[in-house]
Every structure is written in structure tokens, then in C-alpha cells.
UniProtKB/TrEMBL annotation:
Phylogenetic placement of the source organism: Eukaryota, Metazoa, Spiralia, Lophotrochozoa, Annelida
Start and end residues of each Annelid erythrocruorin linker subunit C-terminal domain: 174-292
Organism: Lutodrilus sp. FB-2019
Keyword presence, Disulfide bond: yes
Transmembrane segments: 35-59
Matches recorded under SUPFAM superfamilies: Extracellular hemoglobin linker subunit, receptor domain, LDL receptor-like module
Entries under SMART domains matching the protein: LDLa
Keyword annotations from UniProtKB, A to Z: Disulfide bond, Membrane, Transmembrane, Transmembrane helix
Pfam families named in the record: Eryth_link_C, Ldl_recept_a
Name of the protein in question: Hemoglobin linker chain
Acetylation recorded as keyword: no
Length: 327
């Protein structure tokens, strides 16, 4: 807020993410650093106490103090009590050290980078986009926009070349053979309890006339309880993955021809997406599903060589498993 000489008050605004995201990142780093420093101090204190007990005049090493320690015949009652207390204290310290080792091991497994990406994505959705619909922004808050179909076409349309960046043009979300799994939560259209749904990519194609899209064929599998019986539903779907929006659209075929799914991947995360299941005729929302890549799928190793093929290289990309045909 600024007050001018004429008495008028003006307001200046700053994008939410430009203020909040750096603070969140710094908070995560500071919190992690404090956690490791505190754990290190506690371990050193416990080791110091254990060393002090070990050199205490009433600690008799020759007496075999430990879990099976017992007072010697010539020990006074006071010395015997101290020996037993020392043994109990050492056992307690060892147990606490083991607990700390376990906590430190779990702390090392925390994916801070993923937490940061998720927070950044949530905050960016709260801000109003700088680019119009069907446009692609050339980097976060860059204010430079290009038409979304120019993304990953082999030509750098953004001044910084971001539209051809390997992270933007990654085909990982659409590789043939991979499977996404998640739980479908129905809110309308049909009455179903939450149930598991699998989406397997059967094949993909990038065509020369539309390199900004990956055309897909997928297999949809789900099972749910209805009338006391388990119902199995399996059908194919066709659709596409768009590089500019990181959105996968699937339209059901056969038994699933009345429904479609829109799956949106977060920025820089090719393993997780939020899907909205809709009725094709009216686009009414029916269910929500959070899907995660099934990394146990054996096909991922076979197809790993394709990951390096992006941008202009994608024009020659062809992989079908099994073969299929797009209109």
C-alpha cells in the first residue's frame, strides 16, 4: 500500500507463488537442517552419558556389568545397587540410540523435492493464469505465451526455448506398456462404492502433422461390488496426451463408450495424476480418481530407450503394443 502526495492510496500486487514458494522451500531446508542437527546433538549427549557411566568409580568392568551383570560377593549393598542401576541405564541408552537410528533412516527417505513440486503446483493453481486458454506459458510467470500446438513441434517458439525443453516434451506419461492404478470415488452418475481402477497404455503414436499430441490407446479395468456381487468391467479407450497442458484425455469404447476421463499431471511429475471421470454426452462430473504409476510393470525396462526421443526426434517415433489404428 502506497500513499501519494495528493492523499490517494494505491496498491501494488505481487504473484502469490513468487512470495510463498521461496519461503516454503527455505522453511523445508531450515526444518530439515534443524532436524539433523538436533538428532546429532542428542546422539552425542547419549554417547557422553554412556561414557561417563562407563568410567564411574562404581562401574566394575571386572564384575561383568551388562544385561547379565550381578553384584560380586564382596560388594557392599550400595555398590550392588549402583551396578544394577548402571546396567539398566546403559540398556535404556542403547534402546534410545536404536530408536534414533530408525528415525534418522526414515528422515533420509523423505522426498523433499516432490513435496516442493506439489506445493508449487497447488499454489500455481490458485493464481490466475497469465496466458489465455489454448496458450502455453514460456516458463513460470514469464508472461510470454505461444499457441499450445506449437509446443514440442521441433521448433523453439519461446524466446528461451522452453517449449522444446526435455521436461516439457517428455513422453514418459504415455509410454506403451505402463499401468496407472488408483481408487475411483463416485459422486454422481452411478452409485458405486470406492473401487480400484487400472489404466494401461496399449500403444501410442506421434504423427508428423500433430507433434504436440501423443495419440493413445488404453485398456481400462475396474471391479466393484453391486448387489452383493463383484462386477468386473474391462474396455478399451482412445485419446491423446497434450504436452502443453500435461493432460491425458481418454474416451471409452464398447461397454465404456458413454464415459471419458481427463487426467492432469502436475508439473515435472510423470508418475501421478488426478483424473476426472465424466459422462461424454453431457460432460457431467461422475467420479474422481488419483492415479499412480505402477513401477513394478516389467514393460518399463523394455521401453526405456524411448525416453531420450523428444522434440523433432518424435516425428519418427513409432511404437505399437499391440498394433492399432487411429482415425
Amino acid at each position: 500500500q502506497t500513499t501519494t502526495t495528493s492523499g490517494q492510496t494505491t496498491f501494488s500486487t505481487t504473484p502469490v507463488c513468487s512470495l510463498v514458494v521461496p519461503r516454503i522451500r527455505d522453511h523445508i531446508h531450515r526444518r530439515t537442517g534443524r532436524m539433523w542437527s538436533t538428532a546429532t546433538i542428542i546422539i552425542h549427549l547419549l554417547l557422553f552419558v554412556a561414557s561417563a557411566i562407563a568410567v564411574h568409580p562404581f562401574y566394575k568392568a571386572a564384575a561383568g556389568v551388562g544385561e547379565n551383570a550381578a553384584p560380586r560377593e564382596n560388594d557392599t549393598p550400595a555398590e550392588a545397587r549402583r551396578l544394577i542401576a548402571n546396567a539398566a541405564a546403559i540398556g535404556l541408552l542403547e534402546a534410545r540410540l536404536e530408536t534414533l537410528r530408525g528415525k534418522l533412516g526414515k528422515a533420509a527417505q523423505v522426498d523433499l523435492e516432490r513435496n516442493y513440486r506439489e506445493t508449487e503446483s497447488r499454489l500455481s493453481r490458485l493464481e490466475e493464469p497469465l496466458c489465455e486458454k489454448n496458450q502455453f506459458e514460456c516458463g513460470y510467470r514469464s508472461a510470454e505465451c505461444i499457441y499450445e500446438l506449437f509446443v514440442c513441434d521441433g521448433y523453439k517458439d519461446c524466446s528461451n526455448g522452453y517449449d522444446e525443453d526435455e521436461t516439457v516434451c517428455s513422453i514418459e506419461p504415455a509410454l506403451a506398456g505402463i499401468t496407472y492404478t488408483g481408487t475411483s470415488h463416485w459422486t454422481s452418475c452411478e452409485t458405486r462404492k470406492d473401487h480400484q481402477t487400472n489404466i494401461t497404455i496399449l500403444g501410442y503414436r506421434i504423427r508428423k502433422y500433430s507433434p504436440s499430441l501423443i495419440w493413445l490407446k488404453a485398456l481400462i479395468e475396474s471391479s466393484y461390488q453391486a448387489g452383493g456381487q463383484e462386477v468386473q468391467v474391462t474396455h478399451t479407450a482412445i485419446g491423446h496426451y497434450k504436452f502443453a497442458t500435461r493432460q491425458m484425455v481418454l474416451l471409452g469404447e464398447g461397454p465404456g463408450s458413454s464415459s471419458g476421463a481427463y487426467c492432469n499431471f502436475d508439473k515435472k511429475d510423470n508418475k501421478r495424476a488426478k483424473c476426472e471421470l465424466v459422462k461424454i454426452s453431457s460432460l457431467d462430473h461422475c467420479a474422481t480418481m488419483l492415479i499412480t504409476l505402477d513401477e513394478s510393470n516389467d514393460h518399463l525396462t523394455i521401453l526405456s530407450d524411448d525416453l531420450a526421443c523428444t522434440g523433432s526426434c518424435a516425428d519418427s517415433l513409432r511404437h505399437f503394443s499391440p498394433p492399432w489404428k487411429i482415425l
